[in-house]
Design goal:
Distance between the termini of chain B: 26 Å
Structural class of chain A: mainly alpha
Strand content of chain A: under 5%
Number of helices of chain A: 12
Helix content of chain A: over 70%
Oligomer: heterodimer
Strand content of chain B: under 5%
Distance between the termini of chain A: 16 Å
Radius of gyration of chain B: 24 Å
Shape of chain B: globular
Number of strands of chain B: 0
CATH superfamily of chain B: MetI-like
Order of helices and strands of chain A: HHHHHHHHHHHH
CATH superfamily of chain A: MetI-like
Number of domains of chain A: 1
Largest interface: A-B, 45 and 47 residues
Chain lengths: ~300, ~350
């Protein structure tokens, strides 16, 4: 209640920095109303921080590579090796931290390529609804959406050479259609809005209409979906690396560590359990944070019209 | 009454044209998918004929095979030859098993179908049960527990769950078998449908039936847990939303017994949103089966496809994906029909929301 009164009365008088401050405050309020979102944010910050500072944080940075220490192979979790060591004597904790790097790198790069491509195609198809271009783009989108994404990603990654880059290519190829469909739906309705019509009447260029009139109105669902998708990309990446179609040893990857561990069950159970937990916690963190961002983006009771 | 009948007839006419449209559309999607697969299979570096014959085969043999496989023709012509084979069920030979890919699929598909059906059964039964419970005891510990499970279920990929099951029930507490479809000493029943559970029931061999069920439980659960709790949440929110509707208050005022209200007037419309996403869930079940079958040593088409992928067996890869695409399309048509049955607005051709 307080917030509403303040913003309604204070709008004209507020300086730019004050407006930004109140915007941040409002968004944080909406985000943090659900405590689980905050938990998610903390998990994500910890993981991103660990990945970025991996060489500093990891107790044994050199274990994330070609390192062998048979004297300490298969040590159970203890004070020295928190999550134990694997069959080569490498510290699992350090390897998990380094594996976060590949997982996040993949998520960021896949979304950085797939989202602009998907959004662009969706904008064009939606704005030129009913045209030949629309038919071609949307039918191709439908075809890609008609197969389970993991399946086709597996197939693409399998025919290429197995490495992180090709895994990313495979996932990217499967990811853009979701954004095309999302933006298409919004663009088809926005093109009939008065502000678009009047921009057309004034004689605004097509690029201006697409990117300055229609796109800004699609942004919040796009960002919401991106926030929720990070977890999914990490999941698919882990699935690919689990079957050996991702980062190749000796560089650690979460799925690969789980699958290596299955060969040493049940004696070296920590080789499987801790990477599995790492995957679960990562995806959980990103999903919870994504939910918070969705709440933040949703038009709430405190927004000005 | 007669007006009502006529309206219903019109509805069914509309429904049938809807189904026809849906079928034509599916055929289009499958053709498109076949083109995508063909392109993927052809961009792979290396000569398919050379891959098929191995590195030590003489050049003239490779050339002869190239001609036989129409690899010397242009891409569209190649596609034409390939799709002609696909339509007649001829995907060519597998590099791994040296048999016709179609034979392999006929052998391995039933095991996967059995697994996916079992986990779909888990999803349907328990999601409705848990969803109804959570709605009935809203804001109690049951509701919170199911919510927590939904969050966890999404975050734990099914392959991780499968590995954990393997560790728990394979080594630490071996109460149910974890590997394969049947225990070592048990003779499989004669193949009728290929689904061991059904075949053993048909031939009246209960011991085989229970053994097969025991083997199914863990892999099916590993696949089902994620979608299950998601669906339960969807059922729950639809039910709590419908609970507040006027027509239910009217039904209560009419003196209709409680269980009829819950079972008929509340549950049925509340299932629509859950069933609609069921198609997507089947997709995730099928693709996750790829990893889960490998872990549980399940002799299904996914494990076969996985091996094909790791060995770049292109004919087998294309066939497996086409078969999965076909199943997926058929499942989605069935899901649409179930939704049409549940939702009279679609069935009777009225305005849909």
């Amino acid at each position: 209640m307080n917030v509403r009164v303040q913003s309604k009365q204070g709008v004209p008088a507020l300086s730019f920095s004050a407006r930004v401050k109140s915007g941040v405050k409002k968004n944080w309020y909406k985000f943090s109303r659900n405590k689980l979102s905050v938990v998610g944010l903390i998990i994500v910050l910890l993981i991103v921080g660990a990945a970025v500072l991996a060489p500093v944080i990891a107790p044994y940075p050199h274990h994330a590579g070609k390192f062998v220490d048979y004297a300490n192979a298969g040590t159970a979790p203890c004070a020295k090796y928190w999550f134990g060591t694997d069959n080569f004597g490498r510290d699992i904790f350090s390897r998990i931290i380094f594996a976060f790097r590949g997982a996040l790198y993949m998520a960021v790069l896949v979304l950085a390529i797939a989202v602009p491509v998907g959004v662009f195609l969706g904008l064009i198809a939606g704005y030129y609804q009913g045209s030949f271009l629309d038919t071609v783009i949307m039918r191709v989108t439908d075809i890609f959406l008609s197969v389970p994404p993991l399946l086709l990603a597996l197939a693409i990654a399998a025919v290429l050479k197995p490495n992180l880059t090709n895994a990313m290519i495979a996932v990217t190829v499967m990811w853009w259609p979701w954004y095309t469909r999302l933006v298409y739906g919004m663009a088809t309705s926005l093109r009939n809005e008065y502000f678009v019509k009047s921009a057309e009447l004034i004689g605004a260029g097509r690029l201006h209409i697409l990117f300055r009139e229609i796109l800004p109105n699609c942004l919040s669902p796009i960002f919401t979906k991106m926030a929720l998708d990070v977890g999914w990309v990490i999941l698919i990446g882990a699935s690919l690396s689990f079957v050996g179609l991702g980062e190749q040893p000796p560089t650690p990857a979460l799925g690969q560590m789980v699958s290596d561990g299955t060969r040493y069950m049940p004696d070296l159970w920590w080789m499987t359990v801790f990477p599995s937990l790492a995957i679960a916690v990562t995806i959980l963190g990103f999903n919870l944070m994504g939910d918070g961002i969705r709440d933040m983006m949703a038009k709430g009771e405190y927004d000005r019209e | 009454m007669s007006l009502c009948r006529r309206r219903e007839w019109g509805g069914y006419m509309k429904l049938s044209s809807y189904v026809i449209k849906r079928l034509l559309y599916s055929i289009f999607v499958l053709v498109g998918l076949s083109i995508v697969i063909f392109v993927i299979a052809r961009v792979v570096p290396g000569d398919p004929a050379r891959l098929a014959l191995g590195p030590r085969a003489p050049q003239f043999a490779v050339d002869a095979l190239r001609e036989e496989m129409h690899l010397d023709k242009s891409l569209p012509v190649q596609y034409f030859y390939w799709i002609k084979g696909v339509v007649t069920g001829n995907f060519g030979k597998s590099l791994v098993t040296k048999r016709n890919v179609m034979e392999d699929i006929a052998e391995f598909l039933p095991a996967t179908l059995e697994l996916v059906l079992m986990s779909a059964l888990f999803v349907v039964v328990f999601s409705i049960l848990f969803g109804a419970l959570a709605a009935r005891y809203k804001d109690s510990w049951v509701d919170s527990l199911i919510r927590v499970m939904a969050y966890t279920g999404v975050a734990v990929p099914s392959f991780v769950l499968a590995v954990i099951f393997l560790l728990l029930f394979g080594y630490i507490w071996p109460v149910i078998p974890v590997l394969g479809r049947l225990s070592a000493g048990i003779q499989p029943p004669p193949t009728i449908t290929g689904l061991i559970t059904v075949d053993s029931l048909l031939t009246g061999r209960m011991d085989v039936f229970f053994d097969a069920i025991n083997h199914l439980i863990l892999p099916a659960l590993a696949l089902a847990v994620g979608p299950l709790f998601q669906e339960a949440r969807i059922v729950r929110s639809a039910m709590t939303e419908n609970m507040g509707k006027d027509y239910l208050a009217a039904a209560v005022g009419f003196g209709i017994p409680d269980h009829v209200i819950t079972g008929k007037y509340l549950l049925k419309p509340s299932l629509i949103p859950a069933v609609s996403v069921m198609g997507l869930d089947i997709a995730s079940l099928m693709s996750n089966a790829f990893l889960v079958e490998v872990i549980f040593d399940w002799p299904g088409i996914s494990r076969y496809g996985m091996e094909a992928m790791l060995r770049k067996d292109l004919n087998a890869i294309s066939a497996v994906i086409i078969v999965f695409g076909l199943i997926f399309v058929v499942v989605n048509i069935i899901v649409d029909l179930i939704v049409a049955y549940l939702d009279p607005r679609i069935r009777l051709g009225g305005r849909s929301s």
